[in-house]
Design a protein that fits this description.
Number of strands: 14
Strand order of the largest sheet: 2-3-5-9-8-7-6
Shape: globular
Distance between the termini: 70 Å
Radius of gyration: 22 Å
Low-confidence stretches: 225-229
């Protein structure tokens, strides 16, 4: 049997355990990463990075496996279970030989005990023990590692063990949602005050190169248009633009300065950074603002590397907002991500988008407040 370091074996054995398990709590304490998260939604995934060791823990509440079913309701939400662990380059020394986080697809194919074909990637199961697996996923058709992770083999949703609890789980999910709603309503974020009308600026290098890659991608696939189901709905700009959100800010310069717009979709909704803290541009969240001062508003990615990872998967802000995660990957985007953020651990697009929505749940309220309105459209000055 293929075995790895003590850390690898320890993490492998923790898969499926609840966040209040003593062994999980001990791991968090030893790594200095704070307590495990509370989960609020059925499909929510919360990642806890362990940067020094090169891995990230992902918790979910609804994990359809022997060690983690049924879900349990905690005081303010659901008890999370360790669903998967994403492994980055720094974790290489802990893997069983000859496995590596940067192994090519031919090596994975030789070592695999099973494989699964998805629309845009192929997954190879490298180790399997008692419902726990180590798998590596590769992009199709260009090849290249998408991610390597430890994860659980889950039951199908039609499994009788799952269906038997469906009504009880819906009630529990509703209770958790109401609790989260109360917490969100009480939350107040302090946003830096950005003064003066912004000026056009050159794009950050990763965004500029992404836009070049997108143009090359469309030239390679000339029959794919932004109106297609399989092409990303994204219109690249050449620089930071000013005035694109006047319909929201009504020309208020200080309000517009809070956003760094670098793209739009083909219906006029804009895409950019929300300058929500004093950190560098690459650490600001990427957001989607609907057109004409009345469209939809949502957070797309918590920072620039997450945004690049979404684009590499063929998922842009419009697709995140519409819940479409089956677009054609943008050729070359993954290389740009690796160039500028070599230690980044790839994750499924739905996990990236879900985390952004959770961290910046107040974004919509903030945009409406800049317009002098609350979420129901009432004038805040009255």
């Amino acid at each position: 049997m293929m075995t790895g370091s003590d850390l690898f074996e320890r993490l492998f054995g923790l898969l499926g355990r609840p966040s209040d398990d003593p062994a999980i709590l001990a791991l968090h304490a030893e790594e200095g990463i704070g307590p495990p998260p509370i989960i609020y939604f059925r499909q929510e995934a919360v990642e806890v990075p362990v940067e020094g060791q090169g891995y990230g823990l992902t918790y979910r509440a609804f994990v359809r496996a022997e060690a983690s079913w049924p879900p349990r309701l905690a005081e303010t939400g659901f008890v999370g279970h360790l669903h998967s662990i994403y492994l980055g380059p720094r974790f290489a020394r802990h893997l069983p030989a000859p496995l590596s986080p940067d192994m090519d697809e031919s090596q994975a194919k030789e070592q695999a005990v099973a494989r699964a074909e998805e629309p845009y990637h192929t997954s190879y199961r490298l180790i399997e023990r008692e419902g726990r697996v180590l798998e590596a996923s590769y992009w199709r058709p260009e090849g290249g590692l998408m991610f390597m992770r430890l994860t659980l083999l889950e039951w199908n949703e039609a499994d009788p063990r799952v269906k038997a609890l469906s009504s009880e789980l819906k009630k529990a999910a509703s209770a958790a949602y109401r609790q989260q709603k109360r917490e969100r309503e009480a939350f107040v974020r302090v946003v830096p005050r950005w003064e003066g009308k912004p000026e056009p600026e050159p794009l950050p290098a990763p965004i500029a190169e992404l836009h070049q890659a997108l143009q090359a991608h469309r030239e390679k696939w000339p029959n794919s248009t932004p109106a297609d189901d399989f092409d990303i709905n994204y219109r690249a700009y050449d620089a930071r633009t000013v005035g694109d959100i006047d319909a929201w800010t009504h020309g208020h310069a200080d309000a517009e300065a809070e956003f760094w717009i670098f793209a739009s979709n083909f219906e006029g909704s804009v895409i950019g950074f929300w300058l929500v803290h004093d950190g560098p541009l690459a650490e600001q969240p990427v957001v989607y603002i609907g057109s004409e001062g009345s469209g939809d508003i949502s957070a797309t990615a918590k920072n620039l590397p997450d945004f690049l990872a979404l684009m590499a998967a063929g998922v842009g802000p419009t697709e995140v907002h519409g819940g479409k995660f089956d677009q054609q990957p943008v050729l070359g985007a993954r290389a740009i991500l690796r160039k500028y953020f070599p230690d980044y651990r790839l994750r499924p697009a739905s996990d990236i988008a879900g985390e952004a929505g959770r961290l910046f749940h107040d974004f919509e309220a903030r945009v409406w407040a800049l317009c002098g309105k609350d979420l129901e459209g009432n004038d805040l000055s009255t």
